[in-house]
Design a protein that fits this description.
The complex is a heterodimer of chains A (about 210) and B (about 325). Chain A has about 210 residues and is an alpha+beta fold. Helix content of chain A is about 40%, strand content about 15%. In chain A, a hairpin with a 4-residue loop joins strand 2 and strand 3 (about 85-90). Chain A is globular and about 55 Å long. Chain A starts with 5 loop residues before the first strand and ends with a helix. In chain A, about 30% of the residues are buried. With about 325 residues, chain B is α/β, with parallel strands linked by helices. Helix content of chain B is about 55%, strand content about 15%. Chain B has 13 helices and seven strands. Chain B has helices at about 15-25, 80-85, 95-105, 125-135, 145-150, 150-170, 190-200, 205-210, 210-225, 240-250, 250-265, 270-285, 290-335; strands at about 5-10, 30-40, 60-70, 90-95, 110-115, 140-145, 175. Chain B has a seven-stranded parallel sheet. The N and C termini of chain B lie far apart (about 70 Å). Classes of the chains: A alpha+beta (about 210), B alpha/beta (about 325). The interface of A and B includes residues 33, 156 and 187 of A.
Chain lengths: ~210, ~325
């Protein structure tokens, strides 16, 4: 049977502008630029809001036609507010349209509690034919980001990060876990590796549950 | 390696530092901080960009300086060669068909032609003109930031001009860069590649626009400044023993002494002599005659040393022979 082919875009939400100094009694934590660029997103951002924002942007950039050809299959499969990461699924034929729309976005959608639009940059860091590869990339990048943040905070002498992350545990994160390439791998297509593995994974999960 | 060859300079250093940190985080390796010049150039052409920058920059980032000169009058005489000596890259921004033609065909020592893509040009880009510029090694730049932060009009013009440039150059010799006034307008290199694909660049050409073509601009500019006629450059000429020769240039005796030292198997008396010689030299510089004599002596010493070499070898061979005999005797005993 012919399956509907998708592309999975792994998106990082980055915050290029420094956070506004809040007038609280506590002194603001001193964190390196690296960490404030990757700061967590508000919990109010839901997958539905994000999909709607993407749809609106496609409508703005590509009009009714672009909106029409991309609307089937457009879905946010995964959204982690803590790491500001999302996996967006879209149809394979028009993934570049969705990608360009993400690139043209300049701020988060209006959140229920927020009165101002928060500027952000959506960076697509991986285009994958299967959700499994995208998930593996999320984990790899998460590990690398923690290591990098630790290094940056050590270099800049910022203490705020140790408060946030806790003291480093030996052996929990090592360079070997990351593979040889670190973060520099960038975006690539898994053209040949086009199986939709997430279905299989779910089946495996169900089988395990039955065994239990 | 990814290149973003247009980050405008601001005197607000905190913001510039933030922008650089963000650009490094997006994955760029080389960026150029750009200064805009227009009209008549001032007599004092010094770069306003402090060197080195007064804040910490990400270690992975390589930073260049660049000036963008807006050209509105074709008859105006610009001191381009003096700009080349101050900035790493020189970009020209023509505003009319006439200046564009002049820039493409005749202006020397420029690296980039950076058309302002947010305005509408009342003429077609002519393929022959643009290709002539590309043949000279000049690249065309499309700045995408106005298309992201700008209003609808600017964005439409940007897309229109970008597609026209791609049509006229057939996608060759195009560099994509940001010209981002704020960090918010910067996008990751692969996102820019995707934008380029949307503007009609082929996939390969779009990747080249942030990698190979941009690198060509940087390397070409460096070659023009540093090398012999922009063609021949010494990348690594080997170690130059300048310092050593200066130390010995005062007296050749020192050189002879070193050779004696290198010989290894010298009598103890010789080394003492050499040490005395050094002490003498420290007291007063020897005459030319004395130097010549010492040089001759040193040569002689080396010659005798070389002559002594084979004797040692013979000795060694005899000893090994003896050892062999002993070994044979041992084996006979065992047998």
């Amino acid at each position: 049977m012919v399956r509907i082919k998708h592309r999975y875009l792994l998106v990082n939400i980055l915050y290029p502008e420094p956070p506004k100094p809040q007038s609280t009694a506590r002194a603001p934590l001193q964190v390196p630029d690296l960490v404030s660029i990757h700061q967590p997103t508000s919990d109010d951002l839901t997958p539905q809001l994000l999909v709607k924002a993407i749809r609106d942007q496609i409508l703005l950039m590509y009009g009714d036609y672009g909106s029409g050809v991309t609307t089937t299959g457009l879905l946010v499969k995964y959204l982690s507010a803590a790491t500001s990461t999302a996996i967006v699924r879209c149809a394979r034929a028009n993934y570049q349209v969705v990608w360009a729309a993400l690139t043209y976005m300049t701020h988060l959608p209006r959140l229920p509690g927020g009165e101002k639009l928060q500027p952000c940059v959506m960076q697509v860091v991986r285009v994958s034919g299967t959700i499994r590869k995208a998930e593996e990339e999320v984990i790899r990048r998460g590990r690398a980001a923690i290591l990098k943040a630790r290094r940056a905070s050590r270099n800049e002498g910022a203490t705020g990060l140790d408060v946030a992350l806790g003291p480093a545990k030996e052996g929990m994160l090592s360079e070997q876990l990351l593979g040889d390439e670190g973060l520099e791998r960038g975006v690539e297509d898994d053209e040949e590796d086009d199986d939709d593995d997430d279905d299989d994974d779910e089946e495996d999960q169900e089988a395990m549950d039955e065994n239990d | 390696m990814f290149y973003d060859l247009n980050i405008p300079y601001t005197t607000n250093h905190a913001e510039l530092q933030r922008t650089l940190a963000f650009v490094a985080e997006l994955g760029y390796n080389t960026i150029a901080i750009s200064v805009n010049l227009s009209g008549k150039l001032p007599t004092d052409l010094t770069s306003p960009i402090p060197s080195p920058l007064p804040f910490s920059i990400p270690p992975s980032l390589h930073i260049l300086t660049r000036c963008t000169l807006t050209l509105s009058d074709p008859s105006q005489n610009h001191r381009l060669t003096s700009l080349t000596s101050i900035y790493d890259l020189v970009a020209i921004r023509p505003t009319s068909e006439k200046t564009l033609q002049q820039t493409c065909l005749s202006l020397p020592t420029i690296d980039i032609i950076s058309l302002d893509c947010t305005i509408r040009y009342p003429f077609y880009f002519r393929q022959s003109t643009l290709l002539a510029a590309i043949d000279r090694g000049v690249r065309f730049e499309i700045c995408y930031a106005q298309g992201i932060l700008g209003a609808g009009e600017a964005r439409r013009n940007l897309i229109s001009n970008a597609t026209q440039l791609v049509r006229a150059t057939r996608g060759k010799g195009i560099v994509l860069s940001s010209e981002a006034q704020r960090a918010l307008a910067c996008r990751g290199p692969w996102d820019v590649v995707n934008l380029g694909i949307g503007w009609g660049l082929g996939k390969e050409r779009a990747v080249e626009a942030v990698q190979r073509e941009a690198r060509g601009v940087v390397v070409g500019a460096e070659m023009r400044r540093r090398s012999y006629r922009g063609v021949v450059d010494v990348v690594y000429g080997g170690e130059k023993p300048v310092v050593e020769e200066k130390g010995k240039g005062k007296n050749l005796g020192g050189k002879g002494k070193e050779m004696v030292g290198k010989g290894g198997k010298r009598k103890a008396g010789d080394s003492v002599d050499a040490a005395e010689v050094v002490v003498d030299e420290a007291e007063k510089p020897p005459s030319k005659r004395e130097l010549k004599r010492r040089a001759a002596k040193a040569r002689k010493a080396v010659a005798t040393e070389n002559a002594g070499g084979p004797d040692n070898a013979v000795e060694e061979s005899t000893t090994t022979k003896e050892n062999d005999d002993v070994a044979m005797a041992n084996s006979k005993d065992q047998g």
